[in-house]
Design a protein that fits this description.
Elements: H1 6-13, E1 19-21, E2 24-26, H2 40-44, H3 50-67, H4 74-85, E3 92-96, H5 102-111, E4 116-121, H6 124-132, E5 139-143, E6 156-162, H7 171-181, E7 182-193, H8 201-212, H9 221-228, E8 231-239, E9 242-249
Keywords: Methyltransferase, Transferase, Ubiquinone
Pfam families: Methyltransf_11
GO molecular function: S-adenosylmethionine-dependent methyltransferase activity
Length: about 250
């Protein structure tokens, strides 16, 4: 019997069958996105221009502006995420809001030859670009709701969600969903917003987030949310108005 492709393996992990579409599986059909829009930044993700410049220009430049001069580069983020997830060959890892797939491709290489890296995003244009970039044969892409993950319970060894949780309409529900699909002992790593505590900086950051449609989480808020869901071994790293939080599901 021939070995299953990455897409076939992904299909078996879903709690409902998905339709093939342009090199990825699709659970959203004709819908523009999953859930209500949250603002300008999220709408940009669905354009045809942004995916073409996302990895090389947009994401690195935006990240540097938000992280400040001492935060990790985008390449550094990829390395840090893989390290915090402690990926090994054979693992199943989920890259939530994967965009054009830079992290997903790196994860696919880390879990080869028998693992699976799933890149999940709601934007057709992002996934089309991700597919066009090519990937290891351990990678499969899925267009689906990032808040209500369509995966069966306890199916993945690791979850990465970088630069996205603050754009979700229901971030608390997303954290519940992440905990549900992780196996016991599975790891999570998140990069999201981190509002500083002192006025008037705090007020300015809150206004900026509201104007762009991004929620500004407090420092420590995400770590507390993970602890409330039974995660242990939690680490936090702060740079500018961002935080990288990692933990392990008990």
């Amino acid at each position: 019997m021939p070995a299953q492709t990455a897409t076939e393996r992904l299909q078996r992990l879903l709690d409902t069958p998905a339709q093939p579409a342009q090199g990825f599986l699709d659970l959203l059909g004709e819908a523009d996105q999953a859930g209500p829009p949250t603002g300008l930044t999220q709408r940009l993700m669905r354009t045809t221009l942004l995916p073409q410049v996302n990895e090389r220009y947009w994401r690195p430049a935006l990240g540097r502006a938000l992280k400040g001069p001492f935060g990790p580069s985008m390449a550094g983020e990829v390395r840090l995420a893989a390290k915090l997830l402690a990926l090994t060959p054979g693992d199943v890892v989920l890259d939530v809001a994967c965009g054009t797939g830079r992290f997903t491709r790196a994860f696919g290489a880390a879990v080869a030859p028998d693992g699976l890296a799933i890149g999940l995003d709601g934007a057709r244009t992002m996934l089309a670009k991700a597919v066009a970039e090519g990937a290891p044969d351990t990678v499969a892409y899925l267009r689906a709701d990032a808040v209500h993950l369509p995966l069966k319970e306890s199916t993945v060894d690791g979850i990465c969600c970088f630069a996205a949780l603050h754009m979700f309409a229901e971030p608390e529900t997303a954290l519940d969903s992440f905990a549900r699909v992780l196996k016991p002992g599975g790891r999570i790593v998140l990069l999201t917003s981190a509002r500083r505590g002192r006025q008037p900086v705090r007020l300015a950051e809150s206004i900026g987030g509201a104007l762009s449609g991004q929620r500004m989480f407090d420092r420590g808020e995400i770590a507390a949310g993970l602890r409330a869901r039974g995660f242990t071994g939690i680490s936090e790293r702060y740079a500018g108005v961002t935080q990288i939080v990692a933990g392990r599901r008990s």
